[in-house]
Amino acid sequence: MESVKLICIVCPQGCHLEGVKEGDSLTIKGGCKRGKEYAYKEITAPCRLVTTTIPVRGGVVARLPVRTSAPFPKKKIRELMMFLKSLEVQAPIERGAIVVNDILGERGIHLLAARTVALDGKSSGKS
Ligand code: SF4
Predict the structure, then answer these.
(1) Domain that holds residue 81
(2) Which residue has a Cα nearest atom 6 of ligand 1?
(3) CATH label of the domain that carries residue 102
(4) Residues 26-46: pLDDT tens digits?
């Protein structure tokens, strides 16, 4: 038997929860239904929203803030960060635009632009 203690972050109550693993079964002790769902997911398949910045060519700023559209599997976040290091986008780009669909094969999880970046007039080819 293995026990995992965690604090629920679903609402401000911050209840203490405990997951008890016995063989293939996982029982969540404490909390409400939403808290139990959170604890089950956190123990079996933890996910996190990922935010970072990537380079943007020809924009009024050099980097574009991006975020995942939904929590991303924690076990693949290192791979995601390596992938994002190789990514670059071209201005202009609108806030909310999808930069990458189904990122790293995660269906329904997209990489989104978190702000609008307009074209930089200076980089329009006139020099
Ligand atoms: S278990 Fe329920 S009441 Fe407690 S923090 Fe989580 S969501 Fe809120």
Answers:
(1) 51-123
(2) 35
(3) 3.10.530.10
(4) 999 999 999 999 999 999 999
